[in-house]
Design a protein that fits this description.
The chain contains 3 helices and 6 strands, in the order βαββαβαββ. The chain is of the alpha+beta class.
Length: 113
């Protein structure tokens, strides 16, 4: 995982078109929200930055949307982000079980929102 970086500078650090996971923070010390990009991490981070709720981010590229979902789940369970009211849902059009040991969440065809 790389970061924390200021959301103003996404273009300097997220240079690949790739799926991946991210953590957003207001203060640069705490995970306020975790998320993932199934296709293009930079685009999703720019969308989050435009909302203006967060100032910092961490990120990690993944080889697939499924791997991004696994990373998002791992961070959700590890950091307990206050701005994620529900467990992450899997990639659209797939059946996904949370890979975190002990978690019983299975999502089926759940659109992200």
């Amino acid at each position: 995982m790389s970061g924390p970086y200021n959301l103003k500078y996404i273009h300097l650090f997220v240079t690949e078109v790739s799926p991946g996971g991210y953590i957003l923070s207001r203060n640069g010390r705490m995970a306020d929200r975790v998320g993932r990009a199934d296709h293009n991490l930079a685009d999703d981070l720019h969308r989050e930055a435009a909302q203006g709720k967060y100032r910092y981010f961490w990120f990690e590229y993944t080889p697939s949307a499924a791997a991004a979902y696994g990373l998002e789940c791992a961070w959700y369970h590890r950091y307990h982000p206050t701005d994620n009211p529900e467990h992450p849902s899997g990639p659209l059009g797939t059946e996904s079980a949370c890979p975190v040991k002990g978690c019983q969440v299975v999502t089926v065809l759940q659109p992200r929102g």
